[in-house]
């Protein structure tokens, strides 16, 4: 009886070792799915083959060089953040690789926020004030060139062609007339559907 009991223990003893190997292989699979995006294309037969190979092989501790070669990215990303942001200058500005440019963008955004939110300045007012300042600078510059014997600034002549403006006005006139005729039909009670849509 005691011999049978000892024989049963020797048979039971290898099972925990197999269970530990299965747990380790399961943990390897989970970590591999997390780090490699969990490819669903692999079939169950290939995963069974991998399990058999892992059971046969003894686990070797991974060397530091192999650990450094694997780069694990946050949330399983495959691309670095620089490439996700589009690369180039915009990504450099967002990632603060070009500190002067990033500081300039941040300073400009802060100045715009202060002007428009804190001081309640309006865009149209800003444009008008900028145009007045530019006109004053050009006027003073052209008058000062007479005293310092330098050439005055070259201000280009601007002419608006007649044809595009007439085409735009004609198209606008046609659309306005269509709108008036549609409103007239609705008001006369002919277009119930359009009346309900407008209301």
From TrEMBL:
Q: Where do transmembrane segments lie in this chain?
A: 101-116, 122-141
Give the Reticulon domain ranges: 90-199
| Topology with respect to the bilayer | Multi-pass membrane protein
Q: Where in the cell is it found?
A: Endoplasmic reticulum membrane
Q: Which keywords has UniProt assigned to this entry?
A: Endoplasmic reticulum, Membrane, Transmembrane, Transmembrane helix
Which InterPro entries does the record cross-reference, listed alphabetically?
Reticulon, Reticulon-like
Q: Where is the signal peptide?
A: none
- The segment annotated Disordered runs over 1-69
Q: What is its main location?
A: endoplasmic reticulum
Bias class Basic and acidic residues marks the residues at: 1-10, 20-38
Name by which UniProt lists this protein: Reticulon-like protein
Originating organism: Camelina sativa
Top-level taxonomy: Eukaryota, Viridiplantae, Streptophyta, Embryophyta, Tracheophyta
């Amino acid at each position: 009886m005691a011999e049978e009991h000892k024989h049963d223990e020797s048979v039971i003893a290898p099972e925990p070792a197999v269970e530990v190997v299965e747990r380790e292989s399961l943990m390897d699979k989970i970590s591999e799915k997390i780090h490699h995006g969990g490819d669903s294309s692999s079939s169950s037969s290939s995963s069974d083959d991998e399990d058999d190979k892992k059971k046969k092989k003894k686990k070797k501790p991974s060397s530091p060089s192999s650990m450094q070669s694997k780069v694990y990215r946050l949330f399983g990303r495959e691309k670095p953040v620089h490439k996700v942001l589009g690369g180039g200058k915009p990504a450099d500005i967002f990632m603060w690789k070009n500190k002067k440019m990033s500081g300039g963008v941040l300073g400009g955004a802060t100045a715009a926020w202060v002007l428009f939110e804190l001081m309640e300045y309006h865009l149209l007012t800003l444009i008008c004030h900028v145009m007045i300042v530019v006109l004053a600078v050009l006027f003073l510059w052209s008058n000062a060139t007479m005293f310092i014997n330098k050439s005055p600034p070259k201000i280009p002549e601007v002419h608006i062609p007649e044809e595009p403006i007439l085409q735009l006005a004609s198209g606008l006139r046609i659309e306005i007339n269509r709108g008036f005729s549609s409103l007239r039909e609705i008001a006369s009670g002919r277009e119930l559907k359009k009346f309900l849509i407008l209301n």
